[in-house]
UniProtKB/TrEMBL annotation, chain A:
<dbReference type="InterPro" id="IPR055066">
    <property type="entry name" value="AASDHPPT_N"/>
</dbReference>
<keyword id="KW-0808">Transferase</keyword>
<dbReference type="Pfam" id="PF22624">
    <property type="entry name" value="AASDHPPT_N"/>
</dbReference>
<dbReference type="InterPro" id="IPR037143">
    <property type="entry name" value="4-PPantetheinyl_Trfase_dom_sf"/>
</dbReference>
<protein>
    <recommendedName>
        <fullName>holo-[acyl-carrier-protein] synthase</fullName>
        <ecNumber>2.7.8.7</ecNumber>
    </recommendedName>
</protein>
<dbReference type="InterPro" id="IPR050559">
    <property type="entry name" value="P-Pant_transferase_sf"/>
</dbReference>
<dbReference type="InterPro" id="IPR008278">
    <property type="entry name" value="4-PPantetheinyl_Trfase_dom"/>
</dbReference>
<dbReference type="Pfam" id="PF01648">
    <property type="entry name" value="ACPS"/>
</dbReference>
<feature type="domain" description="4'-phosphopantetheinyl transferase N-terminal">
    <location>
        <begin position="46"/>
        <end position="131"/>
    </location>
</feature>
From TrEMBL, chain B:
<keyword id="KW-0597">Phosphoprotein</keyword>
<comment type="similarity">
    <text>Belongs to the acyl carrier protein (ACP) family.</text>
</comment>
<keyword id="KW-0276">Fatty acid metabolism</keyword>
<keyword id="KW-0934">Plastid</keyword>
<keyword id="KW-0275">Fatty acid biosynthesis</keyword>
<dbReference type="InterPro" id="IPR036736">
    <property type="entry name" value="ACP-like_sf"/>
</dbReference>
<dbReference type="Pfam" id="PF00550">
    <property type="entry name" value="PP-binding"/>
</dbReference>
<feature type="domain" description="Carrier">
    <location>
        <begin position="57"/>
        <end position="132"/>
    </location>
</feature>
<keyword id="KW-0809">Transit peptide</keyword>
Length: 312, 137
């Protein structure tokens, strides 16, 4: 008898989360919340009850209500997202425990109990003032980063790129004459580089931005995919290490999206050698207000694949 | 905020353990400018004070100014050495921009490993002073 099943009725006030199967290997799930759509105080109260005392304290230390709300929703999103995935039985979002790996990357701390096999679930979150997103994979690490499309830098873009990006990336950006397009390409590059570092999970100092290059590469594999699937005809995105540019066996897949018309989102995940390298990963995206509404937005205008071999 | 119930959500009561941040003495301390009444205190006894002193107040002020500008914080918002960048709403792009602004302001170069360890405004000020000293040496 699995004692954990009794936690199903942990609170009469919470409607159950719609349960889901874990993503299959080479599949990515992406969940996002738009904080401006969450205004109900009772709902925010419910979310705060999911948090650990430590998390609640962190939220309270944020300056101002907007930042507090964002921090609260981020924790609520992570907890409810992970709790959806049915393993032995429904998980309680409140009882999930988290820790950081050696380098500070958050991960789930599964409890070591008899008859409980922790799911091989990986997650990563990112947030802006207008969106909080959580990516989920199995077996392989994932990193995601989102940025508002309209994000402006205080510093000059080329000066910034010269300081932090690789020489090739600086060259690509410098070649763009339209300042608005240049700014957009900068933001896209930034999210991709962030997502890669977060996927690696070894901290930013382990792989400084200058030591790797994100390259958009035209693919010749277009006729590999059946016509029905909405595979992007855009370029593949590869990561090249500056330390060893001749090594093409990069183990990481990147994809670039436009989400909700307002954000660029980058996803980076390790290739699963067992699952096979040729099939493009499948992406499913939900817009959610946990306990209230989940809307699958894959294949709609809310999710546009801008680059990378990924299908919805 | 629209609310359909009588319950109003008060963010500041989220944690019963929340304590007010106190302004640290570290950032204010500067042995050279302290004048003490002469009570037979020997110069040697200042040594312990000096070790626990961190960056000069001018450095801290400049850092606060750069942070305030990058994060577009109102002039009356309080930033102290204890303020955490994340708590002020800085994301990773903000943090990198702040570091770049600090490099330009102080004429230093911050390595990625050091930048990663900057959690509070005080951390940034301390690192700057260390790098400025190294540069002068």
């Amino acid at each position: 008898m699995n004692i954990r099943c009794f936690q199903r009725n942990f609170s009469a006030a919470f409607p159950p989360l719609v349960p889901l199967q874990l993503p299959s290997p080479m599949e990515t799930h992406l969940w996002y919340i738009l904080p401006d759509e969450v205004k109900n105080s009772a709902l925010l109260n419910q979310y705060s009850e999911l948090l650990s005392p430590c998390e609640r304290e962190s939220v309270s230390r944020m300056r101002g209500d907007q930042l507090k709300k964002r921090a609260l929703l981020a924790r609520a999103l992570v907890r409810t997202t992970i709790a959806r995935y049915q393993t032995n039985c429904q998980m309680n979002p409140r009882s999930l425990r988290f820790r950081k790996n050696l380098y500070g990357k958050p991960e789930v701390e599964w409890r070591n109990e008899d008859n409980f096999n922790p799911p091989p679930l990986h997650f990563n979150i990112s947030h802006t003032s207008a969106m909080i997103a959580c990516g989920v994979t199995v077996n392989v690490p994932i990193g995601i980063d989102i940025e508002e499309k309209q994000r402006r830098t205080k510093n000059n873009i080329i000066a910034f790129a010269q300081r932090y990006f690789s020489p090739y990336e600086v060259k690509v950006l410098t070649a763009i004459s339209d300042p608005e397009v240049q700014r957009q390409e900068f933001i896209k590059l930034w999210t991709l580089k962030e997502a890669y570092v977060k996927a690696l999970g070894k901290g930013f100092s382990a792989v400084p931005f200058k030591t790797f290059t994100i390259r958009f590469r035209d693919t010749t594999m277009r006729n590999f995919h059946p016509p029905e699937s909405s595979v992007s005809e855009e370029s593949d995105i590869v990561v090249e290490s500056s330390e060893d540019p001749t090594d093409p066996a990069n183990n990481w897949r990147c994809a670039l999206l436009e989400v909700a018309g307002s954000h660029y989102g980058a996803i980076c995940m390790e290739k699963d050698r067992i699952a096979g390298e040729n099939a493009p990963p499948k992406l499913t995206v939900w817009k959610t207000v946990p306990f209230v509404e989940d809307v699958c937005v894959s294949g709609t205008d809310a999710v546009l694949v801008l680059g990378g071999m990924i299908e919805q | 905020m629209a609310s359909s119930t009588a319950l109003s959500f008060n963010f500041s009561t989220l944690s019963t353990h929340f304590k007010q941040n106190q302004a640290p003495l570290r950032g204010i301390c500067n042995v050279n400018s302290v004048s003490l009444p002469s009570r037979g205190i020997r110069p040697g006894s200042f040594r312990r004070l000096r070790v626990s002193c961190a960056a000069k107040p001018q450095t801290l002020d400049k850092v606060c100014g750069i942070v305030r500008k990058q994060l577009a914080l109102p002039a009356d918002s309080s930033i102290t050495g204890e303020s955490k960048f994340t708590a002020l709403g800085a994301d990773s792009l903000d943090t990198v921009e702040i570091v770049m602004g600090l490099e330009e302001e102080f004429g230093i170069s911050v390595e990625e490993e050091n930048a990663q360890n900057i959690v509070t405004v005080q951390d940034a000020a301390d690192l700057i002073e260390k790098l400025v000293e190294q540069k002068a040496a």
